[in-house]
UniProtKB/TrEMBL annotation:
CMP binds at N141. ATP binds at G60, S61, G62, K63, G64, T65, R173, G216. It catalyses: UMP + ATP = UDP + ADP; dCMP + ATP = dCDP + ADP; CMP + ATP = CDP + ADP. This is UMP-CMP kinase. A ribonucleoside 5'-phosphate binds at R86, K107, I108, V109, G134, F135, P136, R137, R177, R188. The keyword Plastid does not apply. Belongs to the adenylate kinase family. UMP-CMP kinase subfamily. Monomer. Its EC number is 2.7.4.14. HAMAP family: Adenylate_kinase_Adk, Adenylate_kinase_UMP_CMP_kin. Its main location: cytoplasm. PROSITE patterns: ADENYLATE_KINASE.
Length: 239
């Protein structure tokens, strides 16, 4: 069972670049000193430590689709930032109208609000493996996350997909999303290039980025994704 802690000052996160060790309150994430093995056959030993994966890519690049397969195979908890924001709109919360207008314009919701929703879901979960899909969308998102959580992601997946393919997929999605129309898609693509690509480059420079070719069938793409996680030796739900 998780044990709620009120202070995390005794916890040690894996990354030397941790920004603020006292900033977040999580369930029992105990001390560890092991560096993350990359592509090595080493048993993963951080069962009570959060394993955070950021899932990046343009609108319609396939983030949500591939997250479902990772959940199925590796037992992650999938937190889609966009989905949490849409849920907030649906719940008629005080911020609902502002979020709706921001999404319609393809712009970015204030970081603190999105992070609050992500943090709440993580605290409610008994899992320690999280896929945070569609976050960080901007350098401001990224820096605010590091400040509030006092930690960096373990893995960053980036689904690289040409714009024409992304537009085609979004227009065919048919889920009734207010932003799945050509005007908003054009705006989202501009925001993606201006604000999200700098985040991608940041993690590339830090050596944390796994760039995935987002063109092909869902299974072809997943074949590139699977080895990223199998190298960490989690207990697999299904092979
Ligand atoms: N490899 C693929 N080939 C064809 N269609 C795909 C592929 N992957 C996903 N799709 C479809 O494209 C649409 C967009 O995929 P998905 O919702 O996973 O993208 P996303 O990156 O989460 O987008 P958004 O950022 O807008 O939430 C969906 O209808 C999905 O079924
Ligand atoms: N970090 C984020 C993530 C999303 N948004 C807003 O939600 C829209 C939909 O997001 P999807 O990931 O589901 O495509 C997105 O266009 C943004 O308006 C956000 O503000 N911050
Ligand atoms: Mg999505």
């Amino acid at each position: 069972m998780w044990r709620r802690v009120t202070s995390v000052s005794h916890l040690t996160f894996a990354h030397k670049s941790t920004v603020n060790k006292n900033a977040c309150t999580f369930k029992c994430w105990e001390s560890f000193t092991t560096e993350i093995p990359r592509k090595e056959k080493t048993t993963y030993q951080r069962a009570k430590t959060p394993f955070i994966t950021f899932v990046l890519g343009g609108p319609g690049s396939g983030k949500g689709t591939q997250c479902m397969k990772i959940v199925e195979n590796f037992g992650f908890t999938h937190l889609s930032a966009g989905e949490l924001l849409r849920r907030e709109i649906a719940s008629n919360s005080a911020d609902g109208i502002m979020i709706l207008n921001t999404i319609k314009e393809g712009k970015i919701v204030p970081s603190e609000l999105t992070i609050k929703l992500i943090q709440k879901e993580m605290e409610l979960s008994d899992n320690y493996k999280f896929l945070i899909d569609g976050f960080p969308r901007s350098e401001d998102n990224r820096k605010a996350f590091e400040q509030i959580f006092g930690a960096e992601p373990d893995v960053v997946l980036f689904f690289d997909c040409p714009e024409d393919e992304m537009v085609k997929r979004v227009l065919n999605r048919n889920q009734g999303r207010v932003d799945d129309n050509i005007d908003t898609i054009k705006k989202r693509l501009k925001v993606f290039t201006a604000l999200n690509l700098p985040v991608v480059n940041h993690y590339l420079e830090k050596g944390k980025l796994y760039k995935i070719n987002g063109v092909g069938t869902v299974d072809e793409i997943y074949k590139q994704v699977h080895p990223v996680f199998s190298s960490f030796h989690f207990e697999q739900v299904r092979v």
